[in-house]
Amino acid sequence: MKLRTRLTLITTLVIVAASLIIGAYSVTATHSNGIAQIDGSLDQVLAATEGTPSSATTKVPTRADDLVVAVALGIALPDGSITVVRQSGSVYAPLPFPKLSKKQTAAALRDYLSIAGPTPYRVRARSLGEGLSVIAAMPLTGLNQQMEGLITSSAVVVLLIILAGGTLIWWVVHRNLKTVDQMIDTATAIAGGDLARVVPSAHEGTELGKLGSALNEMISSLRLSLQTRADSETRMRKFLGDASHELRTPLTVIKGYAEILKGSDTLTVDQRTRAIARLNAESSRMETLIAGLLRLTRLDEKPEISRSLVYFSEIVKDFAYDLKDQEPARQVLIDVEDDVFVSGDESLLSQVVANLMANIRQHTGSDVTVSVSLKLDEDQAILIVDDAGPGIPAEQRELAMSRFGRLEESRSRVGGGFGLGLNIVAKVVSLHNGAIVLDQSPLGGLRTLIALPIAAEVRA
């Protein structure tokens, strides 16, 4: 059974029960009130008959123009017979006096008594002494007819209330549960793959409104999770493709020169020397690629770093002077402020500076000017590396920091790296709560700006 059917049925049953209780109470109360009025009339008549037996009936007030008598009177004799003094009803068609046994007469002396028969009566008696009793009797025909009419009208009203209430409840339930049907349709569509659907909104503050909001939040989270998963799978496929391609190149070279060395008897000394040099070079490149991948994998698997007080000024100076010493033809301008300390992993921060210097060697000529600057700016250490090389176009700078983000149209290793250096730099800087920006250098090439928070110990 559907929820709306159960709710409508239960509510209608409650209305039926309430209507029946109210109707029964109304009928019972009306009947009791009518009996009380009849009993009061009987008491008034009996009170008017107080006195001697001979004058008992003469004291009852009557009018000459009374055409309908409400209360009948009779005298019960000691032998149990009853002498009718007057009959109730129309004077032209009086109602028969109720037939009472001697036992019923005695009961009427103690309390009010209802007598059944063709004409039901309500009876009360008062003793006159000497075995005589005056009996007052009032017919219940009018009250019974009134009660029958009340029961009929109450039944009609109750039925109308039940019909109207049931219809109203069905309409209200159907209207409010329409949103539930829409939610079901939306959930079914989403289960079928239509993630663009949203649950229709209901009135705010209501249970359905809260349910709709919660479902929309869940759908948004699900959509984001699925999108994230899809993006991750896309990145993984691209990663695997790039990694396999990058590994294929040195492996192909190594395999080729290994085949050449098999016929070493026919090779000259220069050819043998070149083959061995190429094997060593490609082996070193493959080692560099694998080391970079392992470094990124560790950073992805464990995005937490061990922190200690790192003398960043010394790290920057060491790698800057290494570049200057290793390439004497290159002009390296070094402006490093002393006593710059940051909190982080010293080996990872060294990797950052090493990768920046390696990129300069890889992508600029040995005579291109380079500027390395480290300054304190309030609570941050600002490292700026400028070069006069070809730079990176603005639309490609984000790509340059992505994994395997190589800017050459071809995937050839000639003239380019593996596309891991800046990605490692960006990852490490992010783990140190820092920021990295690639921009146009005043020297004409690329500017790499890295901002790292200084150590709390120094800041205090």
Structure summary:
It is built from ten helices and 14 strands.
| Major pleated sheet | 5 strands, antiparallel
Strand order of the largest sheet: 3-2-7-6-5
User: Percent of residues in beta strands?
Assistant: 15-25%
Q: Which geometry do the CA atoms define?
A: rod-shaped
Distance between the termini: 71 Å
Structural commentary:
54% of the residues lie in helices and 17% in strands. The strands form four sheets. A five-stranded antiparallel β-sheet has the order 3-2-7-6-5. The chain has a five-stranded mixed β-sheet with strand order 9-11-12-14-13. It has a two-stranded antiparallel ribbon with strand order 1-4. The longest helix has 56 residues, at 207-262. Among the domains are: 198-302, Helix Hairpins, CATH 1.10.287; 305-459, Heat Shock Protein 90. It has 460 residues and is of the alpha+beta class. Helix 6 runs parallel beside helix 7 (346-363). It is built from ten helices and 14 strands. It has helices at 3-48, 102-110, 141-191, 207-262, 269-301, 312-326, 346-363, 397-400, 421-431, 456-459, and strands at residues 68-69, 72-76, 82-86, 89-90, 113-115, 121-129, 132-139, 308-311, 332-336, 341-344, 370-377, 380-387, 435-440, 446-453. Residues 409-416 have low confidence and may be disordered.
